[in-house]
């Protein structure tokens, strides 16, 4: 039997929403999810207070939708608020804090502010390498995004180094013919093409 009490608890609901929303998110329903995400933030604020860690998680989810919708005016202050709570309660290297930091980097990247995005992605990459290892999908995703950001900053030698590192890790983890390795090679190819 399904325990319906879990969903009536805002903390459990926020956790459930956090785990589920990207299934819906990638189905292009962010317009539907945004009011739901806002309602979860309000519910967490009522139940736990504005500076609670569950409120921070709900804020990050709302901001992720805002970034996808290119509403950076909502995303940035929402992420900064969530990040302040997470850094205070969890520390800067906690995986939830790193996720929010990466989304803030994505917010700056979406604005074309690669100089602001770069240090955030570097921070996330270094912490994820320590916590998860160099072959973890989250670490590799951060490495790919950092290579792109550095390329856009015209730091082409560094972008090439990061791109080659990405390819090497994917080849080790997945093999030379894996789709993940092909995507890594495409990232490196973009860098090399820009270098000329």
Description:
- The protein contains 10 helices and no strands.
- The protein is an all-alpha fold and 196 residues long.
- The longest helix has 19 residues.
Helix content: over 70%
Distance between the termini: 62 Å
Contiguous uncertain segments of 5+ residues: 1-10
Beta-strand proportion: under 5%
Shape: elongated
Q: What is the number of helices?
A: 10
Write a concise keyword list for the protein shown above:
disordered N terminus, 196 residues
Which helices and strands occur, and which strands form pairs?
Blueprint (H helix, E strand, L loop, with lengths): L4 H4 L1 H16 L4 H19 L4 H16 L3 H18 L5 H17 L2 H19 L4 H16 L3 H19 L4 H17 L1
Helix pairs in contact: 2-3, 2-4, 3-4, 4-5, 4-6, 5-6, 6-7, 7-8, 8-9, 8-10, 9-10
Summarize this, please?
With 196 residues, the protein is mainly alpha-helical. It has helices spanning 5-8, 10-25, 30-48, 53-68, 72-89, 95-111, 114-132, 137-152, 156-174, 179-195. Helix content is 82%, strand content 0%.
